[in-house]
Amino acid sequence: MNEIRNFDRVADSYDQLAEPQAALARTLASWLTPAERRGRAVEFGAGTGFLTQRLVPWIGTYLATDASPAMKLVGQTRCPFNAWARRDARMPEGLGPVNWVLSCNLLQWFEDPGLALKAWREEMAPDGELAVAVLVRGTFSELLALLPEAMQVRWRSGAEWEQIVRDAGFVPNRIERWEYTSKYPCARDFLRAVHGMGLAPRRVVGPGKLRTTLGLYDEIFGVGGTVRATWRGWLARARRA
């Protein structure tokens, strides 16, 4: 799988570059009060532990999983206080029943995230709760305004995500939108950072068009010696219906 190879490739540098992902994880973690951090939990797409480390102490069993061996190894080193496993989030059979399913910055990479959510639901206790965060339409709006064919992921809207969660058998009880602006010295540095996060854009243009696009990015979205990049997210807590 290409996305697993991408994240394997960047595991050692990911934490240095992925402040937007860390910010999203901080927001999602804040939605669980200390009193709620108990029971049997499984986290899918734990990566290097951005969400994992922010949910301790956890009373009970907490299993952090990731499909990338290299990301799992880094996460396990950073967060040795809970159990870790290499696991494809689309095949969670045998992990339940769990009281919590947690995931940050994962589901948007799946072609059919609803199937994964339905599989997660089957591993949950009758009173189980879901807490998820995803990147949504509007992420990298500056780049896509100039080069719409660049990204290989299909960005969905918040309304689409809510319907996906409901169709998978969950009833949301909290939903919020999230936005983060990151800054880079220039557009080329932004693209390098994107590659360093494992979010490699498609190579759909030649070097001449790319240079032109980067020049336009610097001109249009540059202020005070930096350029901006927008990240948009959607967060939800939901109970198993």
Overall form: globular
CATH architecture: 3-Layer(aba) Sandwich
What count of helical segments does DSSP give? 9
How much of the residues is beta strand, in percent? 25-35%
Low-confidence runs (pLDDT<50, min 5 residues)?
none
Beginning-to-end CA distance, first to last residue: 32 Å
Mean pLDDT equals 92
Assign the structural class, choosing from mainly alpha, mainly beta, alpha/beta, alpha+beta, or little secondary structure: alpha/beta
Name of the CATH first level? Alpha Beta
In N-to-C order, the SSE pattern is HHHEEHEEHEHHEHHEE
Query: Main sheet?
Result: 8 strands, mixed
- Tell me roughly what share of residues is in helical segments: 25-40%
Q: How many beta strands in the DSSP annotation? A: 8
Supply Rg.
Answer: 18 Å
Query: The CATH topology is what?
Result: Rossmann fold
Integer tally of domains? 1
Could you state the CATH homologous superfamily? Vaccinia Virus protein VP39
List keywords for this structure.
29% strand, 36% helix, 8 strands, single chain, Rossmann fold, 241 residues, 8-stranded mixed sheet, alpha/beta, 9 helices
Structure described in brief:
The protein has 241 residues and is of the alpha/beta class. The protein is 36% helix and 29% strand. The protein is globular.
Mind sketching the topology for me?
Blueprint: H1 2-10, H2 14-17, H3 19-30, E1 38-44, E2 59-66, H4 69-78, E3 83-86, E4 98-104, H5 113-122, E5 124-135, H6 141-146, H7 158-167, E6 170-184, H8 187-196, H9 207-221, E7 222-223, E8 226-240
Parallel strand pairs: 1-2, 1-4, 2-3, 4-5
Antiparallel strand pairs: 5-8, 6-8, 7-8
